[in-house]
Amino acid sequence: MSSTIWQQVVEKLEAKISRPNYVTWLKPVKFLSNDGGIFNLSVPNYYAKEWLDKNLKTEIISLLSELSKDFKQLNIVIRDAGAKATNEDLPPLLQTISEEAAQNEQTEENETINRNYTFNSFIVGNNNRLAFAAAEAVAQKPGTTYNPLFIYGGVGLGKTHLMHAVANEIIKSNPKKKIIYTSCETFTGEFIHSIQNKTINDFKKKYRTVDVLLIDDIQFLSNKEGTQEEFFHTFNALHQTNRQIIVTSDRVPKEINNLEDRLVSRFGWGMIADIQTPNFENRMAIISAKAMERGLTIPDEVLSYIATAITSNVRELEGSLTKLVMAAHVEGIELTKEFAARTLKEFSGQKETNISSRKVIKVVAEYFGINTADILGSKRLKELVYPRQIVMYILRERCKLSYPQIGEVLSGKDHTTIMYGVNKMEQQIKKSAQTEEDIKNINKELEL
Ligand code: ADP
Ligand code: MG
Fold this sequence. Notes:
Blueprint: H1 2-16, H2 19-26, E1 30-35, E2 38-43, H3 46-55, H4 57-67, E3 73-78, H5 92-110, H6 129-140, E4 149-153, H7 159-173, E5 179-183, H8 184-196, H9 200-208, E6 212-216, H10 225-240, E7 244-249, H11 261-267, E8 271-275, H12 280-293, H13 300-309, H14 314-331, H15 337-347, H16 357-368, H17 372-376, H18 382-397, H19 403-409, H20 415-431, H21 433-447
The structure holds adenosine-5'-diphosphate and magnesium ion.
Residues 159-160, 216 line the site of magnesium ion.
């Protein structure tokens, strides 16, 4: 009965999505059970889950609730999730990719050191040269050269990779070194937990006795006074005994909201190094290296097509390559530039994201009855700052530009200004019905 409902969902979706997408992603989905309105489906691997979550989940939910009166929830699980990386559904060519991805997933979950993230596998370009050099120096002489090392930059640009590379290098020459990698959120969670369970001394001991402490995404210390205080003491304990601290962040210390001055100042004691968005040449170098690493031979024009189409970050660049290779394999056809173009468009979903930044600026200016020059300028009047931040928000959310790219579009504003603006709008949409309305209207205008 319920499996027939699932059949109907599949038929309806099949009519809507492209053939390759159907074959690659939907067909392998298996119906498991319907437990009192909780529909359980399974997929062969995590790419399939990721793709479904992103592209079809909402649609599946709405069809299920249409077709089944008692529908409550949809669960998509990975078949054999506990089993080791290789999965029988993948051709050998793709097994390395899958294994690697599964391993990355696992290690990220355990928050241990990911051994694939090495200096060797990190492609250096002018966008990350400084951070790379600093990281190498730290790996050679931990605790003495730059302490702390503070690496900052946008999402998916290699901060975590570089941080692990330092750890891997240190372990290589000195396997006894005690290294902890943790996300700021885990650090915070453990700290709170240790207070509740009266195990604060264990917590302190754990973090104050390491040789190298890596804390990822330290911007999440924002507004957490108690954890900041604890981190401050951890920092001092380590620094005084020449043990290495490395942190990453999506912005410079002084842009982290409500971060204590004494921490801001300590972050400046060592080296603050940025990673910028890669330019075309950097992207080309990265994607060629990734293809080579996996033993894939892909025509240059395809690589350069991907490097032109995917500009936001390295993670997406890599993800697109993987997906393309998979899709071509499943369809059993050659990975040509045309195939890449067609498939990437499908992957990017139904929604048109190809709206030019010029159009966004024009529409927003018209909406608020101001000049485009006012948006591009830097006059700090409330009436201009608000539209400007809306432009930043839309360029980010809808056009998927990176912070530095948006900065460029807005006559060379600093990417931290953009980050601040986007962040502000994200908060404001939640709080103000007016802002929500403004953005909805502008988005509608942009469709025309
Ligand atoms: P961040 O921590 O800045 O969000 P990650 O370090 O998680 O980014 O990087 C995202 C993905 O891109 C990872 O798989 C990483 O290996 C890869 N990557 C990023 N930058 C580079 C680079 N310069 N060379 C090779 N791989 C990179
Ligand atoms: Mg990261």
